[in-house]
Amino acid sequence: xxxxxxxxxxxxxxxxxxxxxxxxxxxxxxxxxxxxxxxxxxxxxxxxxxxxxxxxxxxxxxxxxxxxxxxxxxxxxxxxxxxxxxxxxxxxxxxxxxxxxxxxxxxxxxxxxxxxxxxxxxxxxxxxxxxxxxxxxxxxxxxxxxxxxxxxxxxxxxxxxxxxxxxxxxxxxxxxxxxxxxxxxxxxxxxxxxxxxxxxxxxxxxxxxxxxxxxxxxxxxxxxxxxxxxxxxxxxxxxxxxxxxxxxxxx
Length: 251
What we know:
It is globular and about 50 Å long. A 6-stranded mixed β-sheet has the order 3-2-1-4-6-5. A hairpin with a 5-residue loop joins strand 5 (173-175) and strand 6 (181-183). The relative contact order is 0.21. It is α/β, with parallel strands linked by helices. It has a domain at 18-110 and 152-221: 3-Layer(aba) Sandwich (Rossmann fold). It starts with 17 loop residues before the first helix and ends in a 50-residue tail after the last helix. Helix 3 (59-70) crosses helix 8 and helix 6 packs antiparallel against helix 7 (130-149). The protein has helices at residues 18-22, 29-47, 59-70, 87-90, 92-100, 111-121, 130-149, 191-201; strands spanning 51-55, 76-80, 104-107, 154-156, 173-175, 181-183. GO terms for molecular function: 4 iron, 4 sulfur cluster binding; adenylyl-sulfate reductase (thioredoxin) activity; metal ion binding; phosphoadenylyl-sulfate reductase (thioredoxin) activity. This is Adenosine 5'-phosphosulfate reductase. InterPro entries: APS_reductase, PAPS/APS_Rdtase, PAPS_reduct_dom, Rossmann-like_a/b/a_fold. Its main location: cytoplasm. Belongs to the PAPS reductase family. CysH subfamily.
């Protein structure tokens, strides 16, 4: 069973402003920031050009991008454009370039594979079965991720232990099952600490977070969550599953 998120809605006005709802600077956050920066710096030294941040453009990944840019770390940034993302999500790519002077490499699915999948299974295949949903994720996410990570020795994610029961034991540094290191430098941060960092350093974020979407994926597969629901309850909400697409399944 997934852990229940400790979202602060019950005691906060429904302003629709994520910073107002969630941001709380904890006594531990300064130390956590310093530790995350050191992890990123060590990774850049260890892996050099073999290192990439694989950004979902969610709030956690935007915090990591800010850490990379703020501390002038030589780490490439890349993302996946599945062809089904919200316009608000894609809008962060030029904002990163404008704010940080960093270009984001964009990896898209192979167009012919998408056409064949949709022709065979339909535009709404993800709603028909878990197997078809995962097949859609395979075409739109896993294949382009494999190209993103080709030749890399390590990749950086925004995974946090608090996000779900399935992620409760996320390590700062682990083997991804493909011979690479998978790094999650803010794994021990809380949701309130993430937003406190956003507020303090004015990090650009997806406006959909203000609409009660803590975890944002493809548009057909994402909805707002209610008070007390798991962070990832809005992903593939019609399923009884672990709410994963295959990008972060433990080997």
